[in-house]
Amino acid sequence: MKTRFTMTVLVIMVAIAGSLYTKAQAGPHGFGAPMVAAEDADSRHQNRLEAMAAVLELTDEQRSQIQQILAAEKQRNEPLREELRQGREAMRLATEGGVFDEDRVRTLATEQAQPRVELAVAHARMKNRIFALLTPEQQSLAKKLHPLMGKGRGKCKDF
Hints:
Distance between the termini: 19 Å
Largest sheet: none
Radius of gyration: 18 Å
Order of helices and strands: HHHHH
Structural class: mainly alpha
Mean pLDDT: 78
Low-confidence stretches: 21-34, 152-159
Helix content: over 70%
Shape: elongated
Number of helices: 5
Number of domains: 2
């Protein structure tokens, strides 16, 4: 059991290191810089899925079902992501060149709140659907590993 846990932690650390390496290769993304390309995000998600599959010892059927869930949610949420992209661009335009119209910025920020809420709900729904595919043993392991996987963007944070 101790060996399995050690291997699990090792696999997670390799996945996190790979994610950080990918982020470092993408270059700096500061304020006003382009967001990470969709291909980079897809690659990062694929790496996370592979790490999760290895650690939780997912069956081929579970992997396939998870990929179907991810693809369906991605398609379902694309309009929300596009709305947020447009909102970020509007915010950038509203604040570039030292111009600051507080009412305009507040309006734009308020408009972005609802799509963010919907994406948060969709993310929770997706996590729940994936968790339901796991066996009780896999669920138990996933719960134990969750605190080890980091928080925030660019780090493994699910399962």
